[in-house]
Amino acid sequence: MTLLAILMGTLAAGIGSVWLAALLSFGALGRYTQHMLSLAAGALMATAFMHLLPEAFESGIEPHDLFLILLVGLVFFFLLDKAELWHHGHEHHHEPDPSLGHPVHAEHAHHGHDHSHGHNHGKTRVGGSWAVLAGDSVHCFGDGVLIASAFIADVRLGAIASLAVLAHEVPHHMGDLMVLRAGTSNKRAALVKVSLAGAVTTLGGALGYWLVDLFHDYLPYFLVVASSSFVYVALADLIPQLQKHLSARQTAAQIAWLAFGIGLVTVMSQVGGHAHG
Questions:
Q1: Is residue 170 scored above 60 in pLDDT?
Q2: 135 and which of 32, 116, 243, 269 could share a cystine (Cβ 3.0–4.6 Å)?
Q3: Contact indicator for 122, 92 with CB cutoff of 8 Å
């Protein structure tokens, strides 16, 4: 049953985020991009601080050890991000093409499994599309492992983690779709390629089910690593994109969507808790 839930959660997060990204990128929903960034930031922070971390700390492991893992995880993802920036700074010797401008192209720090998808936005053309897909696949695989660890801890945590991953992957996939569209005018081909990369989330979930089950005693540490990933993405990637001078109305909308993301995760937790009980 747990494996089935993992497969469903990873499919929803991996494929669902791509299709929603396509609606936002190619459809009439494009004006809601900033709202999705706010929603994702709220959902990620709520998932980490209200659910994954409390679940880990209730395990009885020394809090000092878990806080150390959290700190190491944050630094680890920061260093991976710096390494990717350094790599692309040497690989590309031209400035980003302003014709490719898009609200989410500033995105650059997706949690640490692989970051080669984010920094390419606006810098690469056809040749960069395969690098984007390769990086996206590795990233989605890591998402699947994180979702699997959450499901094994608690079904409601798995559902919340799936929602959080879906929310933060939407702006990420929007950037990927824009990069692929730079090399081809075929929207369908770009959507199929990114969807295949998103489907790798399910592969990561299946393998994660086996790995986490095998190392079940270390589950609290998996949850803390997942938390550090979510916190890093929210604070180092999503929130900075929202920190711009806006009108009072736009600022209020940002705060409302941020609160909605937090509230949505909280409601899902309560509903899941009653069902779980």
A1: yes
A2: 116
A3: no
122: left (phi over 0), alpha (psi -120 to 50) or beta: left
Cβ of 50: how many Cβ atoms within 10 Å? 15
Query: Which amino acid does the sequence have at 114?
Result: D
Q: What is the pLDDT of residue 37?
A: 80
Taking the C-alpha atoms of residue 17 and residue 36, their distance in angstroms, rounded to an integer, is 11
Q: Which residues contact 177 (CB under 8 A, 6 or more apart)?
A: 21, 22, 25, 26, 190, 191, 194
Domain residue spans in the chain? 2-276
Predicted confidence at residue 232, as pLDDT, reads 87
> Virtual CA dihedral for 184, 187, 191, 193, nearest 10 degrees?
-20
> What is the identity of the amino acid at 233?
V
Buried b / exposed e over 117-127, threshold 16 CB at 10 Å, is bbbbbbbbeee
The set of residues, in sequence order, having a beta carbon less than 8 Å from that of 239 and lying 6+ positions away, is 41
Instruction: Round to whole Å and give the CA distance between 266 and 237.
Output: 22
Please give the biggest Cα pair distance in the chain.
Answer: 57
pLDDT tens digits for 98-155?
A: 444 444 433 333 444 443 333 333 333 334 466 667 767 877 888 898 899 889 888 8
Provide the pLDDT confidence category of residue 81 given band limits of 50, 70 and 90: confident
Distance (Å, rounded) from C-alpha 219 to C-alpha 141?
18
- Residue pair 60/242 in contact (Cβ under 8 Å)? The answer is no
